[in-house]
Amino acid sequence: MKEPSLKDTSLGMMLVLSSTAIIVGAVLAGFFQLVSAKIEANRLEEERRAIFAVIEGIECDECYEVITKDIEVDGKVKPFRIFRGHDMEGNTVGYSFIAEGPGFSAKIRMMVGLNVVPDTLSGLRVVEQIETPGLGDKITKEKFYSQFKGLSVKPEIEYVKNRKPEKANQIQAVTGATISSRAVVNAINKNIKVVLKALEEEEFKQSQIEEKF
Amino acid sequence: MAKRTITEEFKKGLWAENAVLRLLLGMCPALAVTNSAINGLVMGLASTFVVVCSSTMVSTIRRLVPRQVRIPTYIVIIAGFVTLADLFLKAQFPAISKALGPYVPLIVVNCMIMSRAEFFASKHPLKPSMADALGTGLGFTGVLVVLGSIREILGFGSIFDIVIMTEEAFTPWVIMILPPGAFLSLGLMIGIINHFTELRKKRSGI
Amino acid sequence: MNVVLVFLSAAIVNNLVLSYFLGICPFLGVSRRLDTAVNMGLATTFVMTLAAVITWLINNYILIPFDLPFLQNVTFIITIASLVQLVEMFIRKSSPPLYRSLGIYLPLITTNCAILGLTLFEALREYSLIESLFFGLGGGVGFTLALVLMAGMREELEFADVPKALQGAPMTLLIAGMLALAFMGFAGLLSV
Questions:
Q1: pTM reported for the whole predicted model
Q2: Coil, strand, or helix at residue A153?
Q3: What is the widest separation between alpha-carbon atoms in chain C?
């Protein structure tokens, strides 16, 4: 450092720091604008793929609709989305919804499929999780998913450990990942009641519309 | 310090002054995300991107930044590049971005990057700084890939998601994927390397 | 969620150092002696608790309302860096004896990834303010616990006959592996 210049005064320091922060902030904001559409598209695509995976018999790419309802979960009223899948003629082939719950390390989000007669599930896909690799993340494997196909939700889903399930509403928890398995079961149980109620109301509305015609 | 050529600045980071194996820097990501080879590779490349960009930047503006505020300035620059890398991964490779979870933002506090900015780039011109950063980054990536491969082979029986040992032939050592496996394999890896370096020294001595 | 559970989970079950690999650098660097380990742990706990609360306020009152979550990383690290500076100045003025015992560790804390990691996890898990406070406190206690356990073992190790190739970092990593193995026994006790 030869000449004592502006940069060694406190004004210079503030200038350097704040201009760095502003430039970095501006660049990031610009880049975020650039990629946010793509990130959002990725999220939607993932959601769409999950819907197609859990509802069987959707016959075309656009054959599903979103029903948004204000539903009370955990004491908070939130818009809750239910997806209705249909075939080419518009007949309902199944429903699905997103359930969330605390897992072993953080929140687990999953897409749950319901059959037309919503007594049994039609499938499950975990959309978001950071469970322990090698143990907890076995809940994202086909072996675990397949147990939910045709699983009865009445009166409630239960899990058993280290033995084969005996009843229609039981699944076997993944060995070494009981907590993650339980988190999935709890999240479904918590959300399914409100979903069933919402579906009843929806059907009631649908039948009223049909009567009018 | 003897003057080194640009190639030498690049080469030293690969092995002789490898961040993880020799300087014990950047241990957190080296342990946390190496449960599979692909995670290690992506994490290594993302860190390389950040270290090269931030070293370039720091070296360019090194005469403008007052000494007292250089650390905060460097942190802001590094954090900016990390966020860029994070957003890019989210947009282009959503699956991998999810697997790495919050460890991508944590590249900010990877001491390896800070040490390159503070000890090298802030005192050297552009070209050596870039060479030094690139060497360090690639050396780091190499360690992460090797460690990730070892843990994936023993823990899942696969490498880069290609199954090489079926579950019937080989019972996976789940512990290798879990935290203790990370500590044990990295510890043994550094120990073995130390052993051979020692042997070579002895031989050349005689 | 019960704040006691959040605290215990962060401190023991999901220990930041041993199951999330956060704060490995100080864990390997400052765990040689028991007394320095205790002091480093206390300083970190203090900064961590403050950081957890302040970043919660910034995240929930500035970043989320203005739709700027991509700035989380930059703002959190600046917050932590300036917090460390402030705490250092405050302690130096108010309590010189405390400064003498903690002062030299404070600059190290800025680059301790455990703190940034903790604040990022906190934002990810959408904790409430009170939960964040206990999450920060629990994370700090967990970090101190890991550091102190490690230091205790390393002091004993001075008298052991360690093979030359394993001396220093490799041996420390191997011990950390066994410690992590022991802490896995707590896994499943509590979730999140």
A1: 0.84
A2: coil
A3: 59
Q: How many structural domains does chain B have?
A: 1
Q: Which residue has the tokens 């690290």?
A: C77
Contact C27, C41 (CB under 8 A): no
DSSP string, C62-97: IITTTT-GGGHHHHHHHHHHHHHHHHHHHHHHH-HH
Distance CA B160, CA B153 (A): 9
Could you list the residue range(s) of the whole structural domain that residue B139 is in?
A: 34-205
| Residues of C (61-80) whose Cβ lies below 8 Å from B | 70-74, 77-78
Q: Which residue of A has its CA nearest to C188?
A: A179
Backbone angles phi, psi at A21, to 5 degrees: -60, -40
Q: Are A145 and A85 in contact, with CB atoms under 8 Å apart? A: no
Between strands A64-73 and A121-128, the pairing is unpaired
Strand partners, A99: A110
Name the closest residue on chain A to residue C126, using Cα atoms: A107
For A19, B65, C37, C84, the CA distances from A15, given in Å and listed in that order, are 6, 10, 38, 21
Give me B151's structure tokens.
């843990």
Q: Is the predicted pLDDT of residue A73 greater than 70, yes or no?
A: no
In a domain, B82, yes or no: yes
User: H helices of chain B, where?
Assistant: 6-14, 27-32, 37-60, 70-92, 94-100, 111-115, 126-156, 179-205
Cβ–Cβ < 8 Å for C180, B196: no
CA-nearest of C8, C17, C188 to C114 is C17
Return the structure tokens found at B162.
């290609």
Helix axes of B126-156 and B6-14: crossing angle, nearest 10 degrees: 20
Dihedral sign, CA of B179, B184, B190, B193?
negative
φ and ψ at residue A86, rounded to 5 degrees: -140, 170
Q: Among residues C136, C108, C174, which one has the least CA distance to residue B111?
A: C108
Query: What's the gap between Cα A152 and its chain centre?
Result: 21
- Mean residue pLDDT across chain A: 82
* H/E stretch holding A197: helix A178-212
Note which residues in 56-85 of chain B have CB less than 8 A from chain A. Answer: 64-69, 72-73, 76-77, 79-80, 83-84
Helix (H) or strand (E) holding A172: strand A170-172
Residues of A in contact with B178 (CB under 8 A): 132, 134-135
For chain B, residues with pLDDT lower than 70 are: 1-3, 206
Note the pLDDT tens digit of each residue in A104-162.
777 888 999 999 887 889 989 998 887 777 777 788 888 899 999 888 888 888 898 88
SS3 A94: strand
Is residue B12 a part of any domain in this protein? no
Tens-place pLDDT, residues C20-70: 888 887 787 777 788 888 888 888 898 899 999 999 999 999 888 888 888
Which residues on adjacent β-strands are paired with residue B162?
Answer: B159
**Cβ neighbours around A189 below 10 Å, total:** 16
Of A24, A25, A178, the CB nearest to C188: A178
Does residue B20 lie in a domain region?
no
Q: Which chain B residues are Cβ-neighbours of C19 within 8 angstroms?
A: 179
Average pLDDT over residues C10-18: 83
**Cα distance from B167 to chain C (closest Cα, Å)?**
24
Compute the distance between CA of residue B178 and CA of residue A28 in angstroms, rounded to an integer: 35
